[in-house]
Amino acid sequence: MSKPSSRQHGPGLVRLAIPNKGRIAQPVNELIERSGLHLVDGGERRLITRTHDPNVEILFARPIDIPEYVASGVADLGITGRDMVMERGSAVEQVLDLQLGKATLVVAVPEEADIKAVTDLDGAKVATEFPAITRSFFAEHGVTVTVVTVGGACEATPHLGIADAIVDLSSSGTTLRTNHLRVIDEVLTSTTVLVANPDALVAKREKIDEIILALESVIRAKGQCYLMMNVHRSALADVREVLPGLSGPTVMDVASDENLVAVHAVVKEERVYQLINQLKRAGAKDILVMPIERIIR
């Protein structure tokens, strides 16, 4: 794909590059929408798309190209994998870990191969989509390998006689096991990150900080629920004993003849199932559980 033109990318406009395909494209799109940067064109995939904020536009690009687009100023911000940033070696600043798409770049070999460690691969051929990271990794270990750069289906190369080992991303390990490969070492752990052009961070700091806060607030709210309940004042100590929260529960008086207080707290979603029963036994009633869209500190 040719490099997008930076024309009409004026000083008052922040351009955010996001993946147009790949494993993190859908989660990133959902994060963008939840942050409030709704696409004007309803998500239709164009090269550059406007958002409801007239000062922010979205550039769809290949994840591997995003670091360089940001470094060159074609985009002010970019969302891509940390592995892609390291592979390109682009001069960008990481400003936020989005905690999406966690995966590990691993060295894997055929199950039946008599290879136990990276040092056993001296003189071998290694297939990967990450040639720069792979060369650096083996050089650090003092191992000489021939790097075979592939564009996909890396896990098939050992069985096709193209390589003796691979360096590839693995999330659950299922693909490796399906292709009868086993991991002998880990290269790095990657998550999805927001990166920025260093000059744009200075020139467009206010708008960029606004975007960072919007994204960060959605990330903080992930996996959290908001609990509201009424508690008789005499049972308040028991309820507070079982109720976790970001900074402890909030307690407010209720206009009631029953001497009630309202208790509010933010809790992890995974704890709600057991917590509800514990709260009931402690004396809470009228319990409401609500999702949280954002948490801003």
The CATH architecture of the largest domain is 3-Layer(aba) Sandwich
Give the total of domains: 3
Percent range for helical residues? Answer: 25-40%
Q: Strands of the biggest beta sheet: in what spatial order?
A: 2-3-1-4-11-5
* Category from helices, strands and their pairing: alpha/beta
Beta strand count: 15
Strand content bin: 25-35%
Radius of gyration computed on alpha carbons: 25 Å
CATH topology of the largest domain: D-Maltodextrin-Binding Protein, domain 2
**Overall residue-averaged pLDDT value:** 91
Low-confidence stretches: none
- Head-to-tail CA distance between termini: 40 Å
- Number of separate helices: 9
Give the overall shape, derived from the CA principal axes. flat
Order of helices and strands: EHEEHEHEEEHEEHEEHHEHEEHE
Largest sheet, described in full?
6 strands, mixed
What's the CATH class of the largest domain, please?
Alpha Beta
What name goes with the CATH superfamily of the largest domain?
Answer: Periplasmic binding protein-like II
